[in-house]
Amino acid sequence: MPSPTRLLALAALLVSATAIVPPSQKGAPNQTPDDFTPPTPDNDLIAQTANQVDQKSAPPVDAPPNADVPPTSVTAIDGTVTNSTIGGVSAGNSTRRRDVGRLGKRQSKFEKIFDGLPADQHDASIQGTAYLTYTVVNNATYNIQACLDWCAGINECVFVNVYYEFNNYLLDFVFGEKSNLKCAAYGDIHTAAEKLNFGGQQSYPQLGNETVPLTYITQSSGWGLSGIKEAVTPDGYDLVFGPTGGANNAPGYMGFAFIDKYDVDACAALCNGRGVDPNGGGCAYFNIWRAVVDGIPTTYTCSMYYLVADESTAVNFGQGSLVVTLSRGYARKSALIDGGFEGYTDCDDFCFTTSYANWIGTSSSGGSLDASIFFYPPYAHTGHGSGLLGSAPGLNNQTGTLKPAQPLTTDAGANYVVQCFMSSAFSGPKIEAAAKVDIMWNGVRVGGTSGFTEYALMEASVVGTGSDELAFVGGASPAWTFIDDCKVYKA
Ligand SMILES: *[C@@H]1O[C@H](CO)[C@@H](O)[C@H](O)[C@H]1NC(C)=O
Ligand SMILES: *[C@@H]1O[C@H](CO)[C@@H](O)[C@H](O)[C@H]1NC(C)=O
Ligand SMILES: *[C@@H]1O[C@H](CO)[C@@H](O)[C@H](O)[C@H]1NC(C)=O
Ligand SMILES: *[C@@H]1O[C@H](CO)[C@@H](O)[C@H](O)[C@H]1NC(C)=O
Ligand SMILES: *[C@@H]1O[C@H](CO)[C@@H](O)[C@H](O)[C@H]1NC(C)=O
């Protein structure tokens, strides 16, 4: 005869066993339904901030020629004006790849955008966005060709402003070139309407009470490449649309940054380093566009999203005096195919399987449905598909393994981040306290989850080898764990 204590324990076991209807029988998920509406861009804030930043500049009167082009900087982030590097506003380990061309310009030719005024009149140089650096060219003639040749050797250069600057002491006496014919490089095309720098500065030293001659400018002409409409797709991304005159107004918005030139790579680095949204995960998409205010290039917007958007939502053409131009969308590639289990579509209400084209579930020896894939929206983080670890009918407490049907194709030596939403909530906090799932990369544990949790994002840093085995191992029913919306992004 069993002791009373043992009988009680047995009874408790029966009660808990009958209280929980397992996933295979469509049991309730004990997870607060996500009635969260993914946010869309705050276009008023973007337009307001565009009126606050001043990204227009020209070669400073006292700067030596031939300085290196400074790296792209961030002039505003989420509505706050700043002056930061890309790394300064990014989390994580994003690395810039500076060898990639910004604009496919090698095929294009320069054309004259505007003429200078006659030599005997004072003129003005460009005060515009995306100023890069300047040089001086031999001033024996009005030497346009030397300036264009120099620009062609600078990756970001698509426009030059050529002009004489008089009464600049450094040009006249200090710098070695002994020329006052300035050639200023820009990463965007500018027009005569932006001739706003008239000189008027004191550069010569004050000698006694003599009047110091002020700087002035003559013969300021502008030359641009027609190829500005090209852009090189950044590593780890696919072009989704563009260029068009519409910015995305899409759900899953994570925020925006203004950058000081139209730099698609910089925007990709910001997206990679954006950090994660608790509901949506990492940045999966960005939209880069140029803001033209009253006809003048003003800033370059980089909007980030955790959901991939497309041209159908690129319907923000601007507001007031702000016009959207050169808008392009780029989706971040995931090395993991169908990480949301949406490819399992054997029913339209409730069904489950141990494997399908994209995923394979394996049970422990003697186990039963220890890893499975469900079609059932209430179990999913988003959509209808999710993976389950732990015996779906609750027949044993052995672990299962879910892995992609094919190894992941990666770039050998490159850093990746595995992101996956996991929920160990089905059986309630007490039972799920024992829940545990490991993220395995080529057989090595790199991350995972343990204990009770509603859907939350788990992350793991890994390095690609070219062909990589990803697996999720765990579950011990009734401490089940669901996984969904898994991504493997280049870091
Ligand atoms: C931004 O900061 C850099 C480095 O501190 C500085 O050289 C640059 O002049 C600043 N730009 C503006 C617009 O303040
Ligand atoms: C960032 O880099 C450091 C050192 O290289 C590494 O230990 C860390 O795991 C990386 N973090 C991410 C999120 O990639
Ligand atoms: C060329 O530049 C030098 C140095 O600024 C200046 O002294 C000279 O007058 C310039 N020549 C012409 C033709 O403008
Ligand atoms: C300039 O200085 C000289 C001597 O230093 C003086 O004779 C002359 O009156 C001054 N001129 C003016 C306009 O102040
Ligand atoms: C799994 O079940 C067996 C017997 O059914 C039990 O002995 C064991 O402790 C359980 N393991 C876990 C991790 O719950």
Approximate helicity band: 10-25%
What overall form do the CA principal axes indicate? elongated
Please give the domain count: 3
Under CATH, the homologous superfamily of the largest domain reads Galactose-binding domain-like
List cofactors, ions and other ligands: 2-acetamido-2-deoxy-beta-D-glucopyranose
Low-confidence sequence ranges: 1-5, 7-15, 96-105
Average of per-residue pLDDT values: 92
CATH architecture of the largest domain: Sandwich
As a percent range, the share of strand residues is 35-45%
Rg, Cα atoms, Å? 30 Å
Counted by DSSP, the helix tally is: 6
- How many strands, what sense, and barrel or not for the largest sheet? 8 strands, antiparallel
Kindly provide the name of the CATH class of the largest domain: Mainly Beta
Q: What fold name stands as the CATH topology of the largest domain?
A: Jelly Rolls
Keywords: Signal
Biased composition (Low complexity): 58-71
Biased composition (Polar residues): 46-55
Signal peptide: 1-19
